Each structure stands twice: as C-alpha cells, then as structure tokens.
Amino acid sequence: MSTARSPRGARASSSPGARPSARPAARPASRRPGPRPGVRGVSSAASSVRRAPAHVRRLLTLVALVVVMGLIIAPVLSGYLRQRAEIGEAKRQIEAEQEEIAALQTELDRWDDPGYVERQARERLRFVKQGETAFTVLDDTGTDYTESLPGMAPVSDDVLAASPWYGQVWESVKIANEGLPETKEP
Asked: Which segments carry the region annotation Disordered (predicted)?
C-alpha cells in the first residue's frame, strides 16, 4: 500500500479498499478568484474594474428607492394638499353664507313686528294714518325738498302738475320703468 501526500499534507490512499482516515480532509482556507482551468483569461481592462464596496451599493440603492418613492408620492401629496385647500375654502364660504342667512333671518324677524312695518310704510312709501295730513316741504324754487330714499323713484314736476289722476299714474309707471324722469322738448 502506497500512500502519497497531497500538497496540503493530507494522505491520499491509492488502494480502492482502503479505509478512510479518521480525520476529514482539510479544505483550503480561502479560494482566490483566478483563472479556472479550461477557461480563457479575461481582458486586462475588464479585470482592472473594481466593484464598489457594499456600503456604497446599499447607499445607491437607498437613494434610488427614495427617488422612486418621491415620484410615486408627489402627485398623491399634491392632490391631497389641493383638496385640503378646497375644503378650507368651502368651509369659509359656508361660514359666510351662514352669517348672511343669520342677517336675513334677523331682518325677516323684524318684519313680524307691526311697529317696524308701520315705520317702513311711512318712510319708504310715505303712507299716513287715517286722519293725518302729509306735508311735502318745497323750497323757494318750487322743487321737492325731501330727498328720495333708496329704492324710491324720484317724482318729476310733470307728475305734480294739474293732470287727471290716470295721467299721474301713467307718468309714475313710466318713471318707475325708466328710473329717470322724462323730459319733454318745447
């Protein structure tokens, strides 16, 4: 029985029926990348390129993921912020309309008071109670001295002239329709 030593110092048995040794065969501590048998060598330019260290690769991967996430989240975030602004504007509009409703409700409640209705009839329509006498103050030129109130059409001199009652009514209709008194050319 012949025993030959391998390069690492382990014995190799040449006989097929030999008993294996109690000690396992030693493996090489590290394998170095190198040319394999039967494989041609790589060009010198490709072999001179070094791979980046692991922490740099991880950093580049993290940056790429953050960029992709940013591209995905940006439109969603933009839509969310736009909707929040629209909601805020709608709330402000609702609040303003509720204030307007409250003011109109207060005015409507005032019209339920008979005293307020009477005052408005006297001021706006120049109504008088039965038995009272209404006076219109004229200045020395003969024109109406009282100012017209908002929402009331001005009274022209033609209406005050001696004309039948239906002429006065028709003249007031024309004035109310146009908003300005008619002028007649001589």
From this structure: 1-47
2, part of any domain: no
Assessment of whether the complete model's pTM goes beyond 0.70? no
Query: Helical H runs in 51-113?
Result: 54-110
Query: Which of residues 112, 138, 157 is at a domain's end?
Result: 112
What tokens does 168 get? 């006065």
The per-residue pLDDT for range 160-174, each reduced to its tens digit, is: 566 677 777 777 777
**Average pLDDT rounded to a whole number, residues 97-116:** 95
Q: Which SS3 state, helix, strand or coil, does residue 95 take? A: helix
Query: What is the total count of domains within the chain?
Result: 2
Q: Are residues 107 and 136 in the same domain?
A: no
Residue 170 lies in a domain: yes
User: What is the percent of the chain where pLDDT is above 70?
Assistant: 52
What single-letter amino acid sits at 183?
T
- Measured CA to CA, the distance from residue 15 to residue 140 in angstroms comes to 152
Say if CB 159 and CB 175 are below 8 A apart.
yes
83 domain residue, yes or no: yes
Residue range(s) defining the domain that contains residue 74: 52-112
